[in-house]
Specification:
By secondary structure, the protein is an alpha/beta fold. Keywords: Elongation factor, Glycosyltransferase, Protein biosynthesis, Transferase. This is Protein-arginine rhamnosyltransferase.
């Protein structure tokens, strides 16, 4: 019999946690023919990225994945052969007890948040004995061969290339979203947390010599965009023009359409973890809004990634890139940093392609998880 997998997800920050676990579950089913149950405590966050899903259903099948509502009162159920607790979420006590009661306990993995910090390599794959006799293993995604890799479907880069080579496919996709940019306009996507420096950037775009069409999917940054425009409330489909900048509000789209959106743009501002990884696979210059932590602990994670990502850039381009990312995440003048980065645009474009190609030479996260289970057996 084939192994069964349970993935548990507690929705903490709107879409990041469910975005990663839903993408992982789909890939395990599609590419490894694994029976996956995805347990989610808030399906309202799941529905926007999986059109057709039912937020009230206790159980539903979506794209081959058995999606379950994580009930407040746990109903006894046989644990899977592999159990993944995403991002240190606490599994139901009754489920853990059922794991312990099995003749052969399942492989219990704690799928951690993505980080480029040096200590991750030393902790990846380490076991953590539990008081009840079970053993939990820390599994870290990452950017080096000593980590678990990044989520990447086997056909992802080939699909991106086919899309890029078809002007008709790009035009049809944008038109489906109601986007009709000027011929010479630079297309930018913006998916971010609230940011007091957004206005500086938008001012720079509006005053620029090149037309810019900014696509803003529904999300937390919308209020800041509206404040800059002097509009209290923005709705999906709204289009506003100020100077050289056109701002358009998009609906929240499925994961596959979000990939196409990233591929369609010349620059992508993203946030959190799932969109952060997908922007890297898009092979476009990008800007990451890292999730804010107490006492600015997130700055260390930002710097750790930049240490990896800027490798191969010239000194001037590297400095401009770092200044832009720091400005966005450290409450500095983003508009000024953006203008400085424009002087290195061709190099930043090529670097983004090269980075994606280098990361694609390593095993992807789903494959690494499957191989880890095989080795454990």
């Amino acid at each position: 019999m084939k192994a069964t997998w349970d993935i548990f997800c507690t929705v903490v920050d709107n879409y990041g946690d469910i975005g990663v676990t839903w993408r992982l579950a789909r890939q395990l089913v599609d590419e490894h023919e694994i029976a996956v149950r995805l347990w989610v405590d808030d399906l309202n966050a799941f529905v926007p990225m999986c059109p057709g899903a039912d937020a009230a259903a206790l159980q539903q099948w979506q794209q081959g994945v058995d999606v379950r509502q994580w009930p407040a009162e746990w109903v006894p159920i046989e644990p899977a052969d592999v159990v993944i607790g995403a991002f240190a979420c606490q599994l139901p006590a009754h489920y853990v007890e059922a794991m312990r009661a099995r003749a052969k306990p399942p492989l219990w993995l704690n799928l951690e948040y993505l980080s480029a910090e040096h200590w991750v390599e030393g902790c990846h794959g380490l076991p953590s004995p539990q008081a009840n006799g079970l053993r939990k293993v820390f599994f870290f995604p990452g950017f080096t061969e000593k980590t678990g890799g990044l989520l990447r479907e086997a056909t992802l880069l080939a699909r991106r290339q086919a899309f890029e080579q078809s002007a008709e496919a790009r035009q049809a996709f944008l038109q489906r979203l109601g986007v009709y940019p000027e011929v010479q306009a630079r297309l930018i996507s913006l998916f971010a947390y609230e940011n007091t420096q957004l206005g500086n950037w938008l001012d720079a775009l509006a005053a620029g010599s090149q037309p810019t069409h900014l696509l803003v999917p529904q999300g937390r940054i919308l209020a800041d965009v509206g404040s800059w425009l002097g509009q209290a409330r923005l709705e999906v489909g709204d289009v506003r023009v100020r100077g050289a900048l056109t701002v358009q509000i998009l609906p929240f789209v499925s994961q596959d359409d979000y990939d196409r959106l990233l591929w369609s743009c010349d620059f992508n501002a993203v946030r959190g973890e799932d969109s952060f990884v997908r922007a890297q696979w898009a092979g476009r210059p990008m800007l990451w809004h890292i999730y804010v932590q107490d006492e600015n602990a997130h700055w260390e994670k930002l710097e750790a990634f930049l240490e990896h990502y800027r490798h191969g850039l010239s000194a001037d381009a590297s400095a401009a890139l770092v200044a832009l990312w720091r400005a966005w995440n450290m409450d500095r003048d983003v508009g000024q940093a953006w203008q400085a980065a424009q002087q290195h645009w061709p190099e930043l474009q090529q670097h983004a392609r090269d980075w994606a190609a280098r990361q694609a030479t390593r095993p992807d996260l789903a494959m690494a998880l499957v191989q880890f289970y095989r080795n454990w057996l």
